[in-house]
Design goal:
Mean pLDDT: 92
Shape: globular
Strand order of the largest sheet: 2-1-3-4-5
Largest sheet: 5 strands, parallel
Order of helices and strands: HHHHEHEHEHEHEHHHHHH
């Protein structure tokens, strides 16, 4: 597999990126007391939410576009290298237990494959061809949404993923931490959260990584809210796969219905532990099969199912 050759003036290119900028005022940071370094670092981090806030309209537009496709059966696919790739895999892996998404509904692709989660896979981030191969393995469709993630906004793997996804008719989002990035320009929805120079020069696992985590949280969480995966701010699609989650399921039904413990246990037993179904049986006074039908007819939206039950 061929790799994209290094740009002859890559060093010059990096020097123009705010995420790579050197901060002379921190050149003596290694001589500072530990608590002072911690204070400086904490102060740096406070700037991240403000940088994200400036891009909320772009984030909201991307969410609505992603949710429209996922409602048609499409998938949400993150693609990135290094820290950006790991954050995408993290976000994707947390969707099934939180929102009961089907396996493969939210996917994290990282340059170099699963091994790159824990070790550096040299050269993988420089390969647009690798991104195309990874996406082709998924059998991309126009209902899918591909989010390329790269702090620099110039990573060939992320750009290659977005460019290839566009040729397949998929929705594309480019999340970068520098303005005027090639990644945002390549995507239908460009999101540039400019977090500025890092405490340790070029270490984009710091502020840029935090910004990416915040934006990915928004993309997945708000999309799932739009898809009816919550009822208010309750995780009604939570998958009760362990004792903690079973206890949480009971608590969610209690918060949503105000029912007594014995009623909650009966409702969960009658619905095979499905929180949404149990809530519906209690609030609409219907049996398990009726609750299942109402939810299916409403596309899984509990509020719509309740409205239909009350006719």
């Amino acid at each position: 597999m061929t790799s994209t050759p290094h740009h002859p003036d890559l060093r010059t290119q990096l020097e123009t990126l705010t995420t790579e900028a050197f901060r002379p005022e921190l050149a003596e940071i290694d001589r500072m007391p530990t608590l002072d370094i911690a204070r400086v670092m904490n102060g740096e981090d406070t700037a991240v939410p403000a940088a994200v806030a400036e891009r909320l309209p772009e984030i909201a537009a991307a969410v609505d576009a992603i949710a429209t496709r996922m409602a048609r059966g499409g998938r949400l696919v993150y693609a990135g290298a290094g820290t950006a790739g790991r954050l995408g895999v993290l976000d994707a892996s947390e969707c099934p237990p939180t929102f009961n998404t089907a396996p493969g509904q939210v996917v994290g692709l990282i340059a170099g494959g699963p091994d790159a989660m824990v070790t550096s896979v040299e050269g993988a981030e420089d390969s647009a061809e690798l991104a195309r191969a990874d996406l082709d393995a998924l059998g991309l469709t126009p209902d899918d949404a591909v989010v390329g993630v790269s702090a620099s906004g110039r990573t060939p793997y992320a750009i290659g993923a977005v460019e290839h996804a566009r040729t397949r008719g998929a929705l594309t989002v480019g999340l970068a931490c520098n303005s005027g990035s090639a990644l945002a320009a390549a995507a239908e929805h460009g999101i540039e959260v400019v977090t500025g120079p890092e405490l340790i020069t070029g270490s984009t696992r710091l502020k840029a990584g935090t910004a990416q985590k915040l934006v990915l949280n928004m993309l997945s969480t708000i999309t799932m809210i739009r898809l009816g995966k919550t009822y208010g701010n309750l995780m009604v699609d939570v998958r009760a796969s362990n004792e903690k989650l079973r206890a949480r399921s009971r608590r969610i039904v209690a918060l949503a219905t105000g029912a007594a413990d014995d009623e909650i246990e009966r409702a969960l037993t009658a619905t095979g532990g499905e929180v949404k179904h149990a809530i519906l049986t209690l609030l609409a006074d219907v049996d398990g099969p009726t609750a299942a039908r109402l939810l299916e007819d409403s596309g899984g939206h509990l509020r719509a199912a309740l409205a239909a039950a009350k006719g």
